[in-house]
Amino acid sequence: MNNRIKRFMDYKSISSSELADTIGVQRSNVTHVLHGRNKPSFQFIAKLLETYPEINAKWLIMGTGKMLEHGQLDQQELFSEKLESEDLPKKVELNRTATNEDAAAPYARQSMPEPPPRSAAKTKEIERIVVFYSDQTFKEYGPSK
Where is the region Disordered (predicted)? Predict the structure, then answer.
């Protein structure tokens, strides 16, 4: 369960101390749970679910289902081959009217700053990409030269 709590914290971009302060437990309590020293108590889980109602309790406790309630996608499920097209969020087309275009006009006139010359900018090159599969195998890809 500690890995699922860590995944949720990563999703929310919160630290262990922020989680502890938010749900009203001691910081050491969260640290011990995250490192596997202690298992989370019923009160810890109840406070977590009460503070963050979007967490799917079944996922948190048993590891089944989606991380979030209300059809929101878990990052792992987003890249899963099992994902069905109806699970994806629908693309919303904006209906532009004259008033929308008029309101956007001041922003359209603004220009973007010029990027620095390529020689002055530090460039990063991709060294490798690693894809991990559920059967504990992986495939490594490198840039073609």
Answer: 94-122
